[in-house]
Specification:
The complex is a heterohexamer, with 3 copies of chain A (77 residues) and 3 copies of chain B (433 residues).
Chain A lengths: L1 H39 L3 H33 L1
Chain B lengths: L1 H9 L1 H4 L2 H18 L5 H14 L10 H8 L2 H10 L7 H9 L3 H13 L6 H11 L2 H13 L3 H5 L3 H7 L2 H15 L7 H8 L6 H11 L4 H26 L2 H4 L11 H18 L4 H16 L3 H8 L1 H16 L3 H4 L2 H32 L18 H13 L6 H26 L1
Helix pairs in contact in B: 3-4, 4-21, 5-7, 5-8, 6-8, 9-21, 10-15, 10-19, 10-20, 10-21, 12-23, 12-25, 13-14, 13-23, 14-15, 15-16, 15-25, 16-23, 16-24, 18-19, 19-20, 20-21, 24-25
The structure holds sodium ion (3 copies).
Chain lengths: 77, 433, 433, 77, 433, 77
């Protein structure tokens, strides 16, 4: 009986302790990582993506416009 | 005439037990909660339906070949089973007891005897073996959840990880409660059981199912039902605790807008987390590894078709089998037990303590830093229950200050809570697994 | 030079048997029916292709490790296999006979011997084991079918269930036909075989495969091919029977518009059906349980993503494996047999009798109720073959009366037929399984 | 031989009998269920759904209209 | 205090080996190549991530139950394992050696001993067993690739099949290189190893993985990494070889526009190919059978929903598991080896020789036919690496003549190369499998 | 040692040989098949498909036109 409770207490102390140690380290690692990334790799990928998707969006718009122009033409006749 | 009698004696209505009637009612109640009250329907619909199927008399859908053989109790089969299990008694209960406690090779021998006698595993038992006993279903769900999770708010304000850590106190306090109840002789939980029950406080379905399947499979049904039901009840459980522990002025605290987080940071985060897990807690590697893998697929931007599948077709397929498999643990002989009541009680306590710990941690952080950087209402989101708990933080915040949108701020501790309870799970598996 | 000889002697063209040539032709014919004639292509394309693969000489794709070991017939391997099967003869046919009749533990022992000698299961054999022998593929297809089924027309007019019941007469009449042919010495079917053949009359692919895999796996190929082919032939088989049994005026009967069915009724129906199954016929629980589960996911409105997956990604994946697995049963040694001819013959008789019974039941109901409530043309839809049979009813109805749209009315008996044949399947499994 | 045929006959009689009993009960249960449902829960869910989906449809229409207005503007210039 | 010590001694940082650090770095490098350099990311992201997970110290994710039991090396467990393997030594290395060389029944016995002692397979080991050791994952990927492949360009100009044949010379030259290195004592490859390494030159991921899993599973990690990396490097490896072997005027050759190919031809082609395989090389039947099945589903036009699933949900799911499973073979003890270096070296040689052989074959065909029908730049596409190699042909062609679009012409040899290397795989499995 | 190299050589000769034999046969079979198909089944399926899809496309266009007409109407008011 006693051993069960002491096991539970142990689990709580070491468990909570470990969770805090782990997440504290994660805070530290994450902060460092963010600083390094923002210093050495300031947003290159996002810009590429914006560039990459822009023409496609334009293409879609063109297509849409073409369809609509045709439709509106038809409607006006 | 004899055939009619045979049909009648094999019918459910002739064989049904009070326990099965009760459990079918429980299954229907879960369906009601899921469909009418919108309680985590994606899980509770399959769980509830699986629970009903598991309690169909004589069908034995939730039982293994050996359990089915014992149920029909032909003397020569019992004899052979007892021999394969190295016991002398042919009492069905003693055979089942020996079977459930047997090591894998004896288990295999008994299964062969049952198969030779013409018995086979029930459908739901097979689903459970493949999906849960192997550990794969919760891991794939976790991968899908990873692929759905945006760590942006957490990366913009990494300190909110402390809130996700604090809220795990609910887990460990509940473990203590469970062993305490056992020490007082009220319940009868081992420390493994207690650990599995505690994880309900993590407010994370797949983590709870994964831990329960490893530490206390016989309690899995009750633990999963409690975990998902209480997650659905978060909007009712949390607000009173949050209001009681905060002042009006604290609830009005406005938080700074979150900084923009770059794509590269988001890609690096799951990798950094995986390596930290690898270095510190290998026992959490399957859970957090699959979670990080899902998130990396989401953020890396070059495997969108895999990420889409992980978030849709794959997680849906796995959810169907996971739910039905959990339902298989709602068979009357496993669920109707004083322990289930204890689990339901301890589970809600776990949610409450976790909520309180998160809120109090936020207040402590404000005090330590000597400022008002954190609205303590976001602390409660540290229990996980993504994204319900974050929405609750937002709602209570808006009540106090209609201009104060806490949702994005609460998403940080919210996802931190997922990591926190996976770490807690790893510690428990390490210590008592 | 020796290597060229080795390649040549291992080539298909050197080893091919007349039976394999025939079966490859049969596979090509099934592909032709599926692709050009649109005969249930979702099943017949994989079945036909699997059938061709199963008959590739020397590849042994459809054979187990033991069957492959016996095929190559090395004396020391035959010796070891005979020992594991507790027989003294090393004649390949006797070894195969003992192997096919062995109980699971002996089966396992023989498999280990074959594996130790370096033989392994063929790809299609593995697919069959995982998909069909385990029972899971037909059940998942049934779940998907449930998720695709709208019980609205049935709920609007529950009496059409009687039509679905009557049409199952085709099943049982065929059972009688099969045992009759055996009693006369023309064929050689056991009562299990007869039951599995009869279920072709249920006009439900997954039900037929499920029952055949349990009662007569060696006939599964022919039964599945017959079931799906005749379903595709419904527009040719049914109309003459329907016209012969009805008068022009009966075919002109207009039916009342169906009442609106509420969402709640649709949600309650699969649950009510499941409970009825639980109380009366536990042996039908896997089939009807999964069917009801799929339908509940469809109707409950809160798990649409699961319902979508059950109707699309999951059922498609399962269909691919189910089809290839059925194809594995088209290997020459299993299919080319007088029994196959008997099955094809009995199957079409089953469809015909079921159609007639449905139509006559509708006429009887009109007589008993003293009215003209039911157009007897919808009775034929009771065989299932969803939705083809209902469309046939509609088409013949329109021929008689161009204003009379019977489609929705025929959907009631159509889905009732699914339930009816699943119940019949349960009864057969109970009595002869 | 005889026993095989009698087994088949048995299967037919009891099988058809059971199918009819079962489906008759199902007719009864379904009819009762429908009556009860329509009495005590007359179509509440459907109305909710209609309400819920209405704003979304409206939103979609607004979006469509915005796109089209822009497109038509462009076309007229 | 004791518990802290326990956690510390079980942590990764306490246990990590230099090999594991190296392999984690390799995994990160693969992720870098995949994400930043776009090297076949669909495979290299899961492989790289799986490689990191496989090297998490103490987690044993990539190990079987027996390997995990040996790692923890309890004397009584080692004793029992040695007994089950029929050896007297309890030295861990000797036990592992005996275990890896054991036949299936002894393997099974050792696994039972490990399970009885409480050890279980790692997650990635299970993925590997189910996905790769069973052979199913590469076959399903191949089915999906078949469903994505348009044989139109090949059917319009069947002679391009010769280019796909010639490029397989890279495979066999590499086999010779590998056995040569072994004969000289530099490396230590068996002829099975050499065959598996050679198949890298096929430039086909699933074929390489399938062959390696059958002939040399211990080299699978290096072979898969080499195959996918070099496929991504095709735009760098091929152009210099292509330029060196062709004159400016040859590169300017314009090709006739391809004729229109009818639907029926496209439907007949996979069936004709399957039958040719069946007649000539049954050992290639699983690979080419599934490939043809996928293609037939695509072209037949009546099972579009199956074809869609094969190309999307199913191939994506399988890719995730295949990638993680390949990653499991990147554990330090299996990958860090002089042989890996040899494989990487031989692999690139294989690509180079295949490219050269394809180009030279095209020139030879022009010479034999006495015309200029074929631009030799499309010969290099015969290695496969679909569609990258065809794009390279197109690009180099445009450099020489800006009006000369070779893409569609190069697709013929490109898909021919897939067939060619699957045939080569069949020959290897036949001769040395 | 020698045997390993000779095994490799064997594998190369017979392997390449077989690949060429197989693909040569495939060239032959494919050519024959194409000729037969184009002689006896000249493109029936494609035409059917074109016919079948035409009405659907039209329907889609009609629907689109209806939506657009309505939208343009709205815009003009
Ligand atoms: Na949590
Ligand atoms: Na039916
Ligand atoms: Na190739």
């Amino acid at each position: 009986m006693d051993s069960l409770v002491s096991e539970g207490l142990n689990l709580m102390v070491y468990g909570m302790g470990f969770v805090f140690v782990f997440l504290t380290l994660l805070v530290f690692v994450t902060t460092m990582m963010s600083k390094l990334v923002n210093k050495f790799f300031p947003e290159p990928i996002v810009e590429q993506k914006a560039k990459a998707s822009a023409p496609q969006a334009a293409a879609n718009n063109d297509e849409l416009l073409a369809v609509m122009t045709a439709a509106v033409h038809k409607y006006r006749k | 005439m004899e055939k009619i009698l045979q049909l009648w004696e094999a019918s459910g209505i002739y064989n049904i037990s009070a326990g099965q009637v009760t459990m079918i009612a429980v299954g229907l109640f879960l369906l009601f909660l899921a469909i009418r009250k919108n309680f985590e329907p994606l899980l509770l619909v399959p769980i509830g339906f699986g629970g009903i199927m598991a309690n169909i008399p004589e069908a034995g859908l939730a039982f293994s070949a050996v359990e089915n053989a014992v149920h029909f109790a032909k003397p020569e089969v019992l004899q052979a089973l007892a021999a394969s299990l190295n016991i002398t008694s042919v009492d069905p209960n003693e055979i089942l007891h020996a079977y459930h406690g047997s090591n894998p090779s004896t288990h295999h021998a008994a299964t062969m005897v049952a198969a030779d006698s013409g018995y086979s595993n029930g459908m739901l038992y097979n689903f459970y073996s493949v999906a849960i006993a192997s550990g794969v279903a919760p891991l794939l769900i976790f991968m899908g959840v990873g692929a759905m999770t945006d760590f942006g708010p957490l990366l913009a304000n990494p300190k909110t990880l402390f809130l996700g850590a604090a809220a795990q106190f609910g887990i460990f306090a509940t473990v203590l409660g469970a062993v305490g109840l056992s020490a007082m002789g009220i319940m009868d939980f081992t420390v493994q059981d207690a650990a599995a029950i505690g994880i309900i406080g993590g407010a994370d379905g797949p983590t709870a199912i994964y831990v329960a399947s490893m530490l206390a499979p016989q309690l899995l049904g009750a633990i999963a039902v409690a975990a998902y039901s209480y997650m659905a009840l978060v909007p009712m459980i949390q607000p009173p605790i949050m209001r009681a522990l905060t002042s009006e002025s604290e609830r009005k605290i406005a938080m700074h807008q979150l900084r923009h987080v770059s794509k590269t940071e988001k890609i690096m985060f799951p990798i950094a987390l995986l390596i930290l897990v690898a270095l510190l807690l290998p026992d959490a590697a399957p859970l957090l590894g699959m979670f990080c893998f899902g998130n990396l697929m989401r953020e890396c931007g070059v495997v969108d078709r895999l990420s889409d599948t992980a978030q849709n077709a794959l997680i849906n397929i796995v959810t169907i089998f996971l739910g039905l498999s959990v339902g298989s643990k709602l068979s009357a002989d496993k669920f109707l037990d004083l322990n289930t009541l204890g689990i339901l009680l301890l589970g809600i306590v776990a949610f409450g303590i976790g909520t309180a710990a998160g809120v109090l941690m936020a207040k402590l952080m404000n005090k330590l830093e000597g400022g008002n950087a954190i609205n303590p209402l976001i602390g409660s989101a540290g229990v996980s229950a993504v994204p319900m708990a974050a929405r609750v933080s937002n709602k209570i915040g808006l009540e106090a200050n209609p201009q104060n949108f806490l949702l994005m701020h609460a998403m940080g501790p919210n996802v931190a809570g997922v990591i926190g309870s996976a770490v807690a799970a790893g510690v428990m598996i390490k210590f008592v697994g």
